[in-house]
Design goal:
About 25% of the residues lie in helices and about 30% in strands. The chain is of the alpha+beta class. The protein has eight domains: about 105-255, Apoptosis, Tumor Necrosis Factor Receptor Associated Protein 2, Chain A (Sandwich); about 270-385, Cysteine proteinases (Cathepsin B, Chain A); about 385-570 and about 590-615, Cysteine proteinases (Cathepsin B, Chain A), CATH 3.90.70; about 615-645; about 645-745, Phosphatidylinositol 3-kinase Catalytic Subunit, Chain A, domain 1 (Ubiquitin-like (UB roll)); about 765-865, Phosphatidylinositol 3-kinase Catalytic Subunit, Chain A, domain 1 (Ubiquitin-like (UB roll), Roll); about 870-970, Phosphatidylinositol 3-kinase Catalytic Subunit, Chain A, domain 1 (Ubiquitin-like (UB roll), Roll), CATH 3.10.20.90; about 1065-1170, Ubiquitin-like (UB roll). The strands form twelve sheets. Strands 12, 17, 20, 21, 22, 23, 24 and 27 form an eight-stranded mixed beta sheet that branches. Strands 2, 3, 4, 5 and 8 form a five-stranded antiparallel beta sheet that branches. About 30% of the residues are buried.
């Protein structure tokens, strides 16, 4: 923290001059304080300035109502002029009387610090400090200590400003030493600076603050401008605020009780677990909606218990959403820190798009319930979710004058309630079950023998579930704006409500249907941007807590209820609106309001909020997480102790023999490869000899047999052994600092010497001999392998290596071979046998490669490289390329090691060999780096090599747009050249109504017509000749039929944005009778603009009642049983935003759908519904 709180440089000197203060007067005030750096200029947002003569209607009390009180106590001001001394005495006497009478200070306290009805006062106090000799004061001054609520307080004063040209005043706690442990105080305070002679001249500022050991002071850096204090007369009063270097400052302090433990908390270093016993969930980007729902479900204890009972031990993988949910719940139960949801969303199959898009809680809830129901099928908890969340509604039409009723009972998981037009939750329920009377021209046809009857039509509840999820419809379509808008109208909901009035007369009322509020999920913001958080009551008799992503905070009843009703702000202060979080501009309505309510039936509270014990957690979940936490703790300890340790990689003869590349090893090898250096983590202070002893024991050797060579990075970018560490007493840290390559890992070559008869090891003379490494290039098998180290004399000829090589390889005498020196990755040179090693410039650590001399005619066809140099070039350019089928499931995923220099035809041939297909029938597509999706297919180009194909496209900022190590492939029916003359059309074949769909990609000539498409479909789908004669093709757009295509329709005229369907014309349509016609049918989800599924044509028969029509619809669509019963049917006009006219069993479709453009709508849930009308479907894998 900075420590100088005076004004900077020349600015301070100028201010002092204006105040007639010399710098010398401040010479003894150079003690610098650092705890006030926090009072920067941004504190001005809490400054509120009041003056006498304010425009507010009520009379404003004076800072010290001197005139009035002086008259009250007989101290008139009309007498002789008071001397300075007598005035001072009079003032002190007056202040004394006022303090003891309490009138003025209480009035001032009430004016400046009106009480908040939601906060209970612990204590109040006021204290006045008489400031004298202002311009002789030190840079920082403290007022006298006074008490409030048993705590010491004082005013902190910077007479010349705290880094600003204003007087600075603060209220600070005044404990002599540190405050008691965990001490804090919630304080409302006002500081009033007033004229010593005229108390009506004053300035006041008000603030609230949570005082603690870290934040022990708070106040106003820019309390009042210095120049105005001394030079500006006060509104015609003929006096400045500071007169004769004197002023009074009064502190009004109120300590209030903290109702939640977090009142005015800054939340720096806030520990949810410590404060509440619970932890939050981390936000991944825009997953607050997910966090709110998960916390709500977690604290629905019966749900958590049911999730724990899903058998996951045989499928304990990160792809199993039930398993990841169990882990998340257990983490919430046991973790000390906020829990991540990354593992859960990954198990849903979500990509970054879903993570960073705000989604809808209701849709997420339904999808999650569906997925968990599937996981629970066939298990002991199969009925757990319906038993908790499912109730029943009855849709009915009941005749008024005769005893006849038509009704249908359906399950519901949640209830959607209208907010518009309803002020309370009960209003919304009454709206939901309101009865429509069918009379006059709209009478109900009850069939024989009743005929047309007056009737009541409506919905009533047969039962409610133990846990009731209520979704308040805060988002609705605005036809004027042509957009979805959020509804912020006031909608009140109670802590308890009785659901009995909304039940049918036949409902079971043997126990009360009274519900207690358990959770409020809040949306703050508008439709385009916002934030979710939840208020939940974990225990039936406990408090509510706010779960806001990673924070859990105790909440008051007002915060739970009233602050989430929405509705108008109180703007009596004349403001035009209030700025809303996550919303643009000002608003007169609260954008923070309840979006989902969770109620629990009071008689089932103990069952729903059942105690969850350790025994309820699956043992495999607990064990696995305990292991992971132990591993995390180990890694954390490693990181904390990292400065004490050094990592050393050790190579030896065994690792070299398994190496098949450049140098003695490669850092690019996969983890676990035996050619990698074995890693040792040892204390930096360990001696080299002690480390040798450790390795000797590990290898079953004597420590004397081991010596270490330091591996260094040469200038030619190779890594080789360089020199021996001779001092066994040296620490490994000193060895690294002296011999290692700075900034690179410390790697050693472990040399093992053979002991002589007396047990000692005689190491070769380094002045006369050189340590080299031999590699063998096996030409027939196309491999390069390390053979081992050996010593050669410097003056020895290169050809003298022959006996050593023949011995190591067990080759017969006379075997001819070639020698090469591996100088660096790009330089492998033949060696001259007659030169000495010294003449060949061979030094310690150099590598010599040898290969048998074999005639090319004796080599197998797979031997592409006949010489070591060619193979080294392949090594230099080799790369692993991953191949995957462009259509999942239509082929295998595999990797091939290829050369960057390969042409399109060469690598295509390699892929063809692997797949056992003709390489001319293959085509490839790059992989988009950011999404993993395929780009446009690559065109065959004889001049491009594999490296150029994989690295050819770069984005705006220079990075590659697609992956440099992967390609998608597709096996074509024809050769690539023929394929390019045709067009690919995706057609959905409907073999049985609309319940089954088979998608085929058909190759048809670009200048062909629909008959060509049907011929291709016949071949792909295996259709017989008779069937294909009756097949029709039609286009669909936005879930509705666009047009039917005739056999001679040109392929070129098909729009790329439509969906093509093909089906056999139904028999009843092929044989339509006179008067019959077809109507286009489509599916929608609650609103006609939310289309989904497959559209179809349906025959309308004149005069047929809809009850009979539905039987034909079931046959036509292939939808049967309960699934069909859930569908509601409606006639929908083709115009936008038309309201559907729902059909009853006695309606006649031909009479209702009279316009040729009318459509038949099937209203049922979209299993693949997208969030908030977004283009791509939301799903949980």
């Amino acid at each position: 923290m900075a420590s100088d709180h005076g004004l900077p440089g020349a600015q301070l000197e100028q201010n002092l001059a204006d105040l007639h203060i010399s710098p010398e007067q401040l010479a003894d005030n150079d003690m610098l304080v650092d705890e006030y750096e926090q009072y920067n200029n941004d504190r001005t947002d809490v400054v509120v300035v009041s003056r006498s003569g304010s425009e507010e209607p009520e009379p404003e009390p004076l800072a010290n109502d001197f005139q009035a009180d002086a008259e009250k106590y007989g101290l008139g001001r009309s007498g002789p002029k008071l001397t300075e001394l007598s005035h001072s005495l009079l003032l002190e006497e007056t202040l004394y009387l006022i303090r003891h009478d309490g009138i003025t200070d209480e009035a001032m306290m009430a004016r400046l610090l009106p009480k908040d009805p939601d906060l209970e006062t612990e204590d109040e106090a006021h204290h006045t400090w008489h400031i004298q000799d202002w311009r002789k004061l030190k840079r920082k001054e403290h007022g006298p200590i006074f008490q409030c609520a048993g705590y010491p307080w004082r005013v902190l004063f910077f007479p010349y400003g705290n880094h600003v040209e204003h007087a600075s005043f603060y209220l600070e706690q005044a404990w002599e030493k540190d405050p008691p442990e965990n001490w804090y105080a919630c304080v409302q305070f006002a500081l009033v600076l007033w004229n010593v002679n005229d108390p009506s001249i004053y300035v006041s500022h008000v603030a609230t603050h949570r005082y603690n050991a870290e934040e022990g002071d708070w106040g106003f850096t820019r309390f009042y401008e210095l120049r105005k204090l001394f030079n500006t007369q006060w509104e015609g009063r003929g006096a400045t605020l500071v007169q004769n270097d004197e002023a009074m400052v009064t502190a009004y302090v109120r300590v209030v009780k903290d109702p939640t433990g977090v009142l005015w908390h800054s939340f720096q270093n806030y520990d949810s677990k410590k404060e509440t016993g619970m932890v939050g969930l981390r936000n991944q980007g825009a997953t607050c909606y997910l966090n709110s729902l998960l916390q709500s479900l977690y604290f629905t204890n019966a749900f958590r218990k049911a999730v724990y009972q899903i058998p996951t031990d045989q499928e304990a993988t990160r792809d199993n959403s039930a398993w990841t949910l169990q882990r998340l719940f257990y983490n919430l139960q046991t973790s000390e820190n906020p829990v991540s949801t990354t593992e859960l969303t990954a198990s849903f199959g979500w990509e970054s798009r879903q993570i960073f898009e705000q989604q809808d809680v209701q849709e997420l809830s339904r999808k999650l319930m569906e997925r968990l129901e599937e996981k629970m099928k066939g298990t002991p908890v199969e009925s757990a979710l319906p038993d908790l969340f499912v109730g029943k509604t009855k849709t009915y039409i009941s005749c008024i004058n005769v005893d006849y009723e038509s009704s249908r009972v359906e399950d519901f998981w949640d209830i959607q309630l209208n907010v518009r037009g309803n002020k309370t939750l009960d209003d919304s329920f009454r709206d939901y079950i309101q009865v429509e009377t069918l009379e006059g021209e709209n009478k109900y046809d009850a069939g024989q023998p009743y005929g047309l009857q007056d009737a009541k039509k409506g919905v009533i509840f047969e039962s409610f579930p133990p846990v009731l999820h209520l979704h308040l419809k805060r988002f609705e379509y605005d036809i004027n704006r042509d957009a979805m808008m959020k509804l912020n109208d006031r909608h009140a909901f109670p802590m308890e409500f009785d659901a009995t009035p909304y039940l049918s007369e036949d409902a079971d009322k043997s126990e009360p249907w009274i519900y207690q509020l358990h959770g409020v999920l809040v949306h703050s913001g508008d439709f385009n941007a916002g934030h979710y958080y939840a208020f939940l009551k974990p225990n039936k008799d406990g408090h509510f807590f706010r779960f806001d992503d990673d924070k859990v905070i105790r909440a008051t009843e007002k915060e739970v209820l009233e602050e989430n009703y929405g509705g108008e702000y109180d703007l009596s202060n004349g403001a035009v609106g209030v700025r809303q979080p996550y919303a643009r501009g000002l608003s007169t309505k609260r954008s923070m309001n309840a979006y989902m309510l969770v109620y629990i039936r009071k008689t089932r509270l103990d069952d729903v909020l059942v105690n969850i014990t350790k025994d309820d957690v699956p043992s495999h979940i607990e064990t696995r997480l305990a292991e992971e936490r132990a591993e995390l703790a180990r890694r954390k300890k490693e990181r904390e102790e990292a400065h004490l340790y050094i990592n050393i990689g050790v190579l030896n003869e065994e690792s070299f023999r398994t190496h098949h590349g450049f140098d003695l090893t490669s850092m690019d090898l996969p983890a676990g490869d035996p050619a990698l250096p074995k890693q040792y983590r040892i204390l930096r202070a360990t001696k080299v000899g002690e480390f040798a002893q450790q390795l000797a024991e590990e290898k079953g050797l004597k420590a004397e047999q081991i010596r270490f060579w330091v591996m260094v990075n040469r200038q030619n970018k190779t890594t080789r052994p360089d020199q021996v560490i001779k001092d066994a007493e040296m620490s490994v840290e000193d060895a690294y600092n002296r011999y290692g390559t700075k900034g690179n890992p410390f790697r050693l070559w472990m040399e093992v010497g053979e002991p002589s008869a007396d047990g000692t090891v005689a190491w070769p003379d380094s002045s006369a001999s050189v340590l080299i490494f031999l590699k063998h290039f096996d030409v027939p098998n196309q491999t390069l392998t390390g053979v081992g180290p050996t010593y050669v004399r410097k003056n020895q000829k290169v050809g003298d290596l022959a006996p050593v090589i023949l011995d190591k390889m067990n080759w017969p005498a006379g075997t001819e071979f070639l020698l090469f020196e591996e100088i660096k990755h790009t330089m492998v040179d033949p060696m001259k046998p007659k030169q000495t090693f010294q003449q060949s410039e061979i030094q310690d650590g150099d590598i010599i490669c040898f290969q048998k001399s074999i005639k090319e005619s004796e080599l197998p066809p797979t031997a592409i490289y006949t010489e070591a140099r060619q193979y080294y070039d392949y090594l230099l350019n080799r790369m692993n390329v991953k191949f995957a089928p462009i259509k999942g499931g239509e082929g295998e995923e595999f990797s091939l090691t290829l050369s960057r220099k390969m042409t399109y035809d060469q690598f295509s041939k390699k892929v063809g060999e692997h797949l056992n297909v003709d390489p001319t029938h293959l085509r490839f597509a790059p992989v988009i780096a950011s999404t993993g999706k395929p780009k446009q297919f690559i065109k065959r180009n004889a001049n491009q090599n594999l490296f150029q194909i994989l690295n050819g496209q770069y984005g705006t900022y220079g990075y590659s747009m697609h992956r440099p190590d992967a390609l998608y492939y597709e096996v074509l029916e024809t050769s690539l050249s023929e394929y390019e003359t045709k067009k690919v059309l995706k057609v959905s074949w409907l073999p049985e109504g609309i319940t089954k769909e088979q998608t085929f990609e058909l190759l048809v000539p670009r200048n062909g017509n629909i008959s060509d498409l049907l011929a291709a479909l016949q071949k792909k789908a295996g259709l017989d000749e008779e069937t294909v004669q009756d097949v029709r093709v039609y286009e669909a757009h936005s879930g509705k039929i666009y047009k039917e295509l005739s056999d001679n329709f040109n392929i070129a005229g098909i729009n790329e944005f439509v969906t093509l369907y093909a089906e056999k014309v139904p028999e009843e349509e092929a044989n339509m009778q006179e008067g019959e016609r077809t109507i286009n049918a489509f599916s929608f989800d609650r609103e006609p603009n939310k289309t989904h599924g497959i559209p179809f044509k349906f025959v309308v028969k004149p005069g047929e009642i809809f009850k009979e029509t539905k039987e034909r619809l079931s046959k036509r669509t292939g939808i049967k049983g309960k699934q069909f019963e859930k569908i509601k049917f409606a006639v929908v006009a083709r115009t936008m935003y038309s309201n559907p006219r729902y059909l009853e069993d006695d309606d006649i479709l031909s009479d209702v759908a009279t316009d040729p453009d009318d459509l038949l709508g099937l209203d049922h849930v979209n299993k693949n519904r997208s969030f908030w009308n977004r283009g791509e479907s939301f799903f949980i894998r």
